Amino acid sequence: MKALIIGGGLGGLLTAARLVKAGHRVEIFERLPVVGGRFINLDYKGYKLTSGALHMIPHGSRGPLASMLRQVGADVKIVTSSPPVMLRIPDNGSFREISFEKFSSPLSWTDKLKLFYLNTKSRFVKPDDESFKDWFFPFIKDPWLIKFANAYCGWALSMRCDDVSVREMLAIIDNMRRYGGPGVPMGGCGAIINALEQVILPGGGIIHTNSQVDQILIVDNRAVGVEAGGETILGDVVISDIGHQLTAQLYDHPDTDKFKEYTAALNSARPAPGIKICLGANRPLIGHSGVLLTPYARRVNGINEVTNIDPSLAPPGKHLIMSHQALQSDDIQSEIELGLKDLEDIFHKDDYEVLMVQTYRDGWPVNRAGSGSDMGNTTPIRGLYIVGDGAKGKGGIEVEGVALGVENTITLLQNFKTN
Q1: Which of 24, 223, 330, 354 has the fewest beta carbons closer than 10 A?
Q2: Do strands 85-91 and 94-99 pair parallel, antiparallel, or not at all (unpaired)?
């Protein structure tokens, strides 16, 4: 089978590596000069910043992404964060940290029992189609739980707890129990991209950079190739890593009820925007390698300090700190200023320098489809599949969801090949 892959982000590269390992032919078309998308290392002042991600794998060495990297033989070492996640909460006019597992400790005993009841009930009774907030807030009115949920959802999903469905959130919680907490890839995001290239290219895969796909060729409602740079390239299947919406702009739409339903779903899909602020410091500001969630900040949802595991991500003796916040308004400058003020309040301003502020929205969001609104990996066109952050697997946080979506697509391709 010959697969044509549009986009060389993490989803496209993972798919290509899986197919190459299975003996298939692969060609990747990436419009940028380099592959990796929002998973690239950016060198700045001796720091290894990123084009998007935070040098952190949500489920570390046990999760779906790590499993897939091992499966294709990508040489990447992922070190488990310790502690996994901490919470910054008020304490007599100051702040202290508690472990993630003790998130319910600020609640009253009555509310703890209510939370236990909700959690137990969800294992036997399928929740209604409601938001995560609407699932617990009618029963537990303590504002702490909303602050905690918003901090977690903001950090992990670039969403608020009233924007993500309870069904998706419970699937995420199940995956946390199954796979555990985060880890840091040695060498950062770029190490994963480089390792995947070292699987694809020696395996006969072809990667075209500076190559814009202008059209997907459709014959009898089946994808048969692409046009890129004035050239026609034919293949057995087309796999897109640029999301459902952008992919749908590359081919003529059939006039069928099925496609009309698909178009309506496209229009309702919600991207997840966010802001990342990168700091450089002369000393550890967090002091551990896990995530510090900040429920009482104005905008910042969480912070990590990956140089506690991998010092090579910063100049000698320096530390790289990255904060993330879900975007809550269209006033980008105000959102950035609030995030910067949060960091001033959390750390002493003289202890760090702001290296870079990055905003992810519009055509370059954190996720092309917010968690729970993913439309799956198929399209109404036979032989045309979607992978990446616009088609994540259920309960998959960020890149873990990308890996789950790729795994599902590989299964679909096996069925397609035999039919």
Answers
A1: 330
A2: antiparallel
Tokens in use for 80? 């488990």
Residues 74 and 198 in one domain: yes
Do 90 and 175 fall into the same domain? yes
Domain-located, residue 367? no
Contact 48, 320 (CB under 8 A): yes
Residues 89 and 172 in one domain: yes
Q: For residue 265, what pLDDT is reported?
A: 87
Three-state DSSP class for residue 131: strand
CATH code at 153?
3.90.660.50
> Which residue matches tokens 């197919």?
19
**Which of these three, 332, 360, 388, is where a domain ends?**
360
- Radius of gyration of the chain from its Cα atoms, rounded to whole angstroms: 22
Report the SS3 class of residue 305.
coil
C-alpha dihedral sign at 226, 31, 278, 70: positive
Q: Residues 267, 64, 301, 364: is their CA dihedral positive or negative?
A: negative
pLDDT for 179: 97
What's the CA gap between 417 and 419, in Å, rounded? 6
| Same-domain status, 38 and 12 | yes
**Which segments of the chain have a pLDDT < 70?**
417-419
What integer pLDDT is reported at residue 124 of this predicted model?
87
CATH number at residue 70: 3.50.50.60
Domain count within the chain:
3
**CA 349 remoteness from chain centre:** 30
Residue 107 in any domain: the answer is yes
How does strand 78-80 pair with strand 206-208? unpaired
**Could you tell me if 48 and 313 are in contact, meaning their C-beta atoms sit under 8 angstroms apart?**
yes
DSSP 83-100: SSEEEEEEETTEEEEEEG
Q: In this structure, what token pair is assigned to residue 301?
A: 């949802």
- Please indicate, yes or no, if residue 99 is contained in any of the structural domains: yes
Asked whether residue 366 is assigned to any structural domain, the reply reads no
DSSP for residue 307: G
In angstroms, how far is the first alpha carbon of the chain from the final one?
13
Residue 118 is part of which domain span?
85-179
Q: Which of 68, 33, 402, 410 is nearest to 208 (CA)?
A: 33
pTM: 0.96
Q: Which residues contact 314 (CB under 8 A, 6 or more apart)?
A: 46, 47, 48, 280, 307, 320
pLDDT of residue 260: 87
DSSP 367: B
My answer on whether 286 and 348 are in the same domain is yes
